[in-house]
Design a protein that fits this description.
The chain is mainly alpha-helical. The chain folds into 2 domains: 9-198, MFS general substrate transporter like domains (Growth Hormone, Chain: A, Up-down Bundle); 201-399, MFS general substrate transporter like domains (Growth Hormone, Chain: A). Helices cover 77% and strands 0% of the residues. The protein has helices spanning 13-43, 46-73, 76-100, 105-133, 139-167, 170-189, 204-216, 219-251, 254-277, 283-289, 292-302, 307-335, 341-353, 356-370, 372-390, 394-398.
Length: 430
């Protein structure tokens, strides 16, 4: 029988522990997504659910840049352990309120705001931590494996959560989610990373200014992240606000919509598998080209095209998102110096999500004004035009999958200098 090839990156124990932590917490997160939605619908309604989601997203948008500063200033492992503990407390308290019947929209929204605040500090730290935990030559393999794992869990987590909610209560699934963050924190704490000493500016404001200079000095990063913001401004609001309406009125209802979303997740799994093997010379060109099916899907929904065609497009979207995300993360890690990686990653997160609320606010009135099909076509066309315009930028076309940070003479392990009053040296082994 043919042997099963184990990814070489799994032989690196530090990364293996990190991957396990991601798997555990992602599984719990998928369950919590379903549980929180049904909990709020039981307590109030759609408006209450919207308030809770907004309460979680606002701190993320406001504080993610600050999170990037601290992730380049402090040990990233310490930040991720701390934020996992905060997330565990937030979800555990939410579960307790639901178990005891004391939950209301204000209390749950406040706890989810704490969860979002923790996310603002954890997200920029993840990109830099992967680079610390993985050898240079296995970065893409590590990112592909992380993407593949999240894609699989995006299917399994909500399904398990739905079963738990149906068999018990939303509170139980949220309680399990809290426990997964505790397990994740323990795994992250046990990671063995190289000794890291950091140079910290005199003030957080100084770090923000330095991060901004690092960011704007890389025109390719500015252009790409700006395009991400424009992409998400239209794609996700159009897809998740207008898409269900089209499915209800034209495609047969929730079953059709569920099939479209499920196949996108399956496509993401395929994209993760492809990312293990593919090697591209011009990564940013590839990143833009592989997401073009998303615009085609929106235009297809406007017609609407037959359901099998839409399902095929959705699968291609999933492949593109997963593959493009892996290539982009690896490009950042190989083309940005370690000392600035989390701050530039925080601009990536900020640029990607900052315009989402605007899109969700205006997509409904826009569809009422010009019609749902026209709004979908406009959104899809804008997504594709943005992708092609980005390819015209020389700085984007010139980026290779090399590493400005890992140029000859640069050590693989990050070696920096740290202020003693910020982080003590020699405790990285836990």
């Amino acid at each position: 029988m043919p042997s099963v090839r184990i990814p070489q990156v799994l032989h690196e124990q530090t990364f293996a522990r990190y991957l396990t932590a991601v798997i555990v917490s992602s599984l719990g997160g998928g369950m919590a997504t379903v549980a929180l939605a049904f909990a709020m619908l039981e307590l109030g309604g759609v408006t209450d659910l919207g308030i809770v989601i907004l309460a979680r997203e606002i701190p993320l948008v406001i504080f993610v840049l600050l999170g990037g500063v601290f992730a380049d200033r402090w040990r990233r492992r310490t930040i991720l352990v701390s934020t996992d503990l905060i997330k565990a407390a937030s979800q555990g308290a939410t579960a307790f309120l639901l178990f005891t019947g004391q939950a209301d929209v204000v209390l749950v929204a406040a706890l989810q705001a704490v969860f979002g605040l923790a996310g603002a500090f954890s997200r920029p730290a993840t990109t830099g931590l992967v680079r610390e935990a993985v050898s240079e030559r296995r970065l893409q393999e590590a990112n592909a494996l992380l993407s593949l794992s999240r894609s699989v869990l995006s299917i399994a987590g909500p399904a398990i959560g739905a079963l738990i909610v149906a068999a018990g209560s939303p509170a139980l699934a949220l309680g399990i989610d809290a426990a997964t963050f505790l397990v994740s924190a323990l795994l992250l704490f046990s990671m063995r990373l190289p000794g890291v000493v950091r140079v910290a500016a005199a003030s957080v404001l100084g770090e923000l200014r330095a991060g901004w200079r690092e960011f704007i000095s890389r025109r390719w990063a500015v252009i790409m992240i700006a395009s991400f913001g424009l992409f998400q401004l239209t794609y996700f609001p159009a897809m998740f606000v207008l898409g269900p309406s089209v499915a209800k009125n034209e495609l047969g209802g929730p079953t059709a919509w569920g099939a479209i979303l499920a196949v996108e997740s399956l496509g993401a799994v395929v994209g993760g598998l492809i990312a293990f093997r593919i090697r591209v010379r011009r990564p940013l060109i590839a990143t833009n080209l592989v997401v073009l099916p998303s615009g085609l899907l929106l235009i297809g929904l406007a017609a609407p095209l037959p359901l099998p065609v839409l399902i095929a497009l959705s699968c291609a979207v999933g492949v593109g998102f997963s593959l493009g995300g892996t290539i982009w993360e690896t490009t950042l890690q190989r083309n940005v110096p370690e000392h600035a990686l989390s701050r530039i990653s925080s601009y990536d997160w900020f640029g990607s999500v900052a315009l989402n609320p605007v899109g969700y606010l205006f997509i409904g009135p826009l569809a009422e004004a010009i019609g749902t099909p026209t709004a979908l076509i406009a959104s899809g066309a804008l997504n594709m035009v943005v992708c092609f315009l980005v390819l015209l930028a020389p700085s984007v076309r010139s980026v290779r999958m090399g590493s400005e940070a890992a140029s000859p003479g640069t050590p693989q392990a990050p070696i920096e200098v740290v202020q003693a009053d910020l982080v003590g040296a020699g405790d990285e082994g836990g």
